[in-house]
Amino acid sequence: xxxxxxxxxxxxxxxxxxxxxDTFIEGAxxxxxEIAKHHVVDLDINGCRGCFTCxxxxxxxxxxxxxxxxxxxxxxxxxVLVLGTPIYGNNVTHxxxxxxxxxFTFTMPEMYKGEDGETHHPGRQRKIPKVVLVATCGFPxxxxxxxxxxxxxxxxxxxxPAAQLLFNEEGRGQLAEFLEAIRTAxxxxxxxxxxxxxxxxxxxxxxxEEMKKQVVEAHNIYSTQSSLRNERG
Length: 233
Ligand SMILES: Cc1cc2nc3c(=O)[nH]c(=O)nc-3n(C[C@H](O)[C@H](O)[C@H](O)COP(=O)(O)O)c2cc1C
Description:
Elements: E1 2-7, H1 16-28, E2 34-39, H2 53-56, H3 68-77, E3 80-86, H4 94-101, E4 112-113, E5 119-120, E6 130-136, H5 146-151, E7 156-160, H6 169-174, H7 176-190, H8 197-202, H9 209-232
Parallel strand pairs: 1-2, 1-3, 3-6, 6-7
Antiparallel strand pairs: 4-5
Helix pairs in contact: 1-7
Bound molecules: flavin mononucleotide.
């Protein structure tokens, strides 16, 4: 079983997305799965030029020579693909978008109408991995994840609003059950099992209105103190 993890936060190991990814990896590591994690910001990935060379001139091969030369074969060979991203402007980061855009080489030019009634391109011969979307955001609501969830509709969703709670002990305590659910999901996927609905529900954190109010208040106090510190130099 191969698990390939990408963290599309520029804060890499210092960020909250990485905490969730490492928690998933902790669970998966209890099995014999082969796991690799990469920080997208460290990778040399050019944006797609829209030249369609990978369709018409050199089928399946992009004109760019960069890190996607080894990443694409790894994606094509993985069983589980874990995509971690903070929400920036209600969307996934451009680091993740850049990576996804370049998987265009996996598609073939023909079009067909799928069972879902929508038009698709057939994929080139490869393993179709289970995809896990791991997203964090700063607001305490779950609405900032709407677009990301729609982009990766068939993925397993792991979402944490007000992810800054992970930076203090009290917050981590409040999220203990969520973190445990991520560990369990990591282990289950690494064992080739499906994640049951009951566990899926625990993987998307929803706060009570009271909790949201507390997050906003704590944030505003921190924000005022930071402004005062800056004013004093
Ligand atoms: C440029 C930028 C845009 C952001 N946009 C949003 C947003 O639209 N909604 C939101 O809830 N949080 C937003 N955030 C907050 C991040 O999603 C949040 O801090 C996240 O946990 C960061 O993940 P990381 O610690 O892994 O880097 C934004 C942060 C930055 C830097």
